[in-house]
Amino acid sequence: MNEREIVALIREMAGGPHPGVEVQIGDDAAVFRFPTPDVLLTVDSLYEGVHFDMDTYELSDVGWKTAAAGISDIAAMGGEPLCALLSLAFERPPSSAEVLALVGGFREVSILNGCELVGGDVCRSPGGLALTVTVAGKPPDHGPVRRSGAREGDLVGVTGCAGDSAAGLFILQRGDDGARERFPGLVEAHLRPKPRVLAGTILGEHGVSAMEDVSDGIAPDICHICSESGLGCEIQADLIPLSDELKELAEEASVDPMTWALSGGEDYELLFTAPPGRLERILDSLGKLDIPASRIGVMRPAGEGCRAVDAEGETIELKGLGYEHFA
Amino acid sequence: MNEREIVALIREMAGGPHPGVEVQIGDDAAVFRFPTPDVLLTVDSLYEGVHFDMDTYELSDVGWKTAAAGISDIAAMGGEPLCALLSLAFERPPSSAEVLALVGGFREVSILNGCELVGGDVCRSPGGLALTVTVAGKPPDHGPVRRSGAREGDLVGVTGCAGDSAAGLFILQRGDDGARERFPGLVEAHLRPKPRVLAGTILGEHGVSAMEDVSDGIAPDICHICSESGLGCEIQADLIPLSDELKELAEEASVDPMTWALSGGEDYELLFTAPPGRLERILDSLGKLDIPASRIGVMRPAGEGCRAVDAEGETIELKGLGYEHFA
Q1: Before B17, cis peptide (omega within 30)?
Q2: I need a labelling partner for A286 at 20 to 30 A (CA). Which of A95, B28, B292, B306 fits?
Q3: Do B45 and A147 touch (CB under 8 A)?
Q4: In this model, does residue B66 exceed pLDDT 80?
Q5: 123-162 of A, contacting B, C-beta below 8 A
Q6: ∠A305-A311-A316 over CA atoms, to 5°?
Q7: pLDDT class for B42, splitting at 50, 70, 90?
Q8: A220 and A100 in a common domain
Q9: How many CB atoms neighbour CB A258 within 10 A?
Q10: Rounded to an integer, what distance in angstroms lies between the CA atom of residue A61 and that of residue A190?
Q11: Strand blocks (E) in A150-205
Q12: Long-range contacts of the stretch B101-104 (C-beta < 8 A, 24+)
């Protein structure tokens, strides 16, 4: 397909009209009508060979993961995603089946989260597939949840389990089809992460003091909250929730599960802080909606650094752990 | 620099606070307060080796051109750009001087056009520099100008001169330093195009029936307006405004200037349609602000196709001309 045909196909896939969408795909810019003057805006890029490879991903997974990365950033502010733009670059002209799979995966997770594809860009890439997603959304009524709002003594919470995505990547990189079948939850967590939009809005309504999505790993992400809030933290490693599949794989592969839990990115769970009394109520509220969430630590003065303590009382420095693009 | 340092430097460059910017660079998402519920949204990606190469571009040119491409899309709807996100991917860790040049060029043109850098993404690329810009803006009061609003008998107008950017690229690709010095306007048009934001808002206020920026070339861009409006067109080739530098270079290099004028993209001039009486008033209004603009043709029934007629009365089919990423 050429550029014009690709845009025409994506426009057909998007259908419409949709609420809020005043000008859809196919003009110089899209027009969306937002319910509030304040708009959340975020952008994420994914490159073949850096963020994914086509040996282990289906095209629909790539589309899904791209949309999920952008939507998760909106969830991390306590917001609701409303519309998205997708910039696509192909090394060679794609077939219509390829565009359908890629954009289909993108739309699958975005529609699940109330986020409409309204525009984008299509061009040639110098090598490999490249995608950039822009997501715009509505902040919570009391204002967006920042990384900078944590206070000393606030407790640290996290939704879901930690490290499943990294463990899934471990399986995919080994090319072990047997493990892939025995640990479907880990592989799914890596290929098709589910952004925590509902949890984010509930956490926003409850006035959590700081929040971030786990995109780089619990260690670097709590370090961001510490540095933006001018604080340190003490994470209790044995409180970090691990899935049964992760524990089983870790034992089988002789990997320390904390490696995945602390340094593994792309879980897209939400990491947040709240005063002690409030945290219990928050965990209750989430629990009633079957959203798992756990207390894993406490915010400390900056001088104490960012650290985790394991069951034996050993200290783990959190700074420097996790994925770094230019390591 | 690593990812964190790059973000910190860009945040410092952006400074602030700025009007409308509620949450700046450094959180999961930016928050911008828009003056109208309707928001224009556009995205453009530029790849090294496809859209530019580092033999002929300075990093500051790459930054400039990326911002200009996004801002021009907002201008093409008659809108005002207000804020931008920038996703940057580097093959290897950049130096601070490189980040300063790249983002400096981006900010130079965006600030000139009232558009604040509010967020973005930084990661590693599999090869070469890659940039994606998202620009959000305010539509004109009577609503955005679409590609689809042209009517039969509307006249076709264009701002500025056609083909300068393509002629500039011709000079850069030949590596001819002498020509580079003798034709500075052409080279500047290619490296540092100036989006027509003021012209776009005036055209929007005057209620032009359709508009598009010249990003692919006058031929493919008028074909977009024709196809979206369900019409054909007749462009008078001898009315297409050519700069003196372009004419001189064309003669010297024995190139038909119409090749650059019709098929040369990235001029970022505005191509628009309006009823006959209104077009004269529009050209007057633009002229009073020293914005050059010309009438170049007329919208015709779809059955007559999209064509140009040259001074000798020869017909040039416009469909199929211009840049195509997957040609």
Answers
A1: yes
A2: B28
A3: no
A4: yes
A5: 123-128, 130, 132, 134-137, 139, 144, 146-148
A6: 30
A7: very high
A8: no
A9: 22
A10: 9
A11: 155-159
A12: B101/B58, B101/B59, B101/B60, B101/B63, B102/B59, B102/B60, B102/B62, B102/B63, B102/B129, B102/B131, B103/B9, B103/B10, B103/B13, B103/B63, B104/B13, B104/B60, B104/B63
Number of domains in chain B: 2
Other Cβ atoms less than 10 A from the Cβ of A323: the count is 16
Look-up of token digits 């939009």: A197
A123–B51 CB contact, under 8 Å: yes
Using a CB–CB cutoff of 8 Å, tell me whether A54 touches chain B.
no
Structural domain boundaries enclosing A313: 155-317
A43 contact residues in B (CB cutoff 8 A) = 85-87, 119-121, 132, 134
Query: Which position has the token pair 């692919």?
Result: B216
pLDDT, tens digit (0-9, with 9 covering 90-100), for A90-113: 999 999 999 999 999 999 999 999
* A162 and A286 within one domain: yes
The count of residues in chain A is 327
Q: What is the ipTM of this complex?
A: 0.96
From residue A252, how far is each of A139, A245, A264 by CA, in Å?
A: 43, 11, 18
Flag whether A150 is in a domain.
no
∠ CA B20-B23-B27, nearest 5°, is 155
Instruction: State the Cα–Cα distance between residues B193 and B181, nearest whole angstrom.
Output: 18
Tokens at residue B301, please? 């029934």
| B140 residue type, one letter | P
When pLDDT is cut at 50, 70 and 90, the band that residue A322 belongs to is: confident
- Sorted by sequence, the CB contacts under 8 Å of residue A63 that are 6+ apart come out as A101, A102, A103, A104, A105, A106, A107, A108, A131
Q: In B, which residues are within 8 Å of A9 by CB distance?
A: none
- Asked if the Cβ–Cβ distance from B89 to A47 is below 8 Å, we say yes
Of A29, A127, A130, which has the smallest distance from its Cβ to B74's Cβ? A29
Residue of A nearest to B48 (CA): A126
- Whether residue A10 lies within 8 A of chain B, CB to CB, comes out as no
Residue B70 resides in a domain: yes
Rounded distance between C-alpha atoms, residue B117 and residue B10, angstroms: 9
Residue to test with chain A: of B10, B21, B24, B41, most A Cβ within 10 A:
B41
Question: B65 CB contacts (<8 Å, ≥6 apart)?
Answer: B46, B51, B52, B57, B105, B191, B192, B193, B266
- Boundary (domain end) residue, out of B138, B172, B207: B138
pLDDT score at B324 = 76
User: Do residues B229 and B95 share a domain?
Assistant: no
Question: For the whole model, what pTM was predicted?
Answer: 0.96
Beta-sheet pairing, B80-90 with B116-124? parallel
Tokens encoding B260: 């650059």
The verdict on residue B322 lying in a domain is: no
Cα–Cα–Cα angle for A275, A277, A280, rounded to 5 degrees: 105
Q: Do A147 and B26 touch (CB under 8 A)?
A: yes
User: SS3 of B309, please?
Assistant: strand
d(CA A153, CA A150) in angstroms, rounded, equals 9
In whole angstroms, what is the distance from residue A241 CA to residue A287 CA? 14
Q: Residue A130 corresponds to which tokens in the numbers above?
A: 């490249």
Rounded to whole angstroms, the Cα distance separating A81 from A70 reads: 9
Closest C-alpha among A288, A203, A216, A7 to residue A123: A7
Of the residues B138, B166, B183, which one is the last residue of a structural domain? Answer: B138
Q: Per-residue pLDDT tens for A4-50?
A: 999 999 999 999 899 999 999 999 999 999 999 999 999 999 999 99
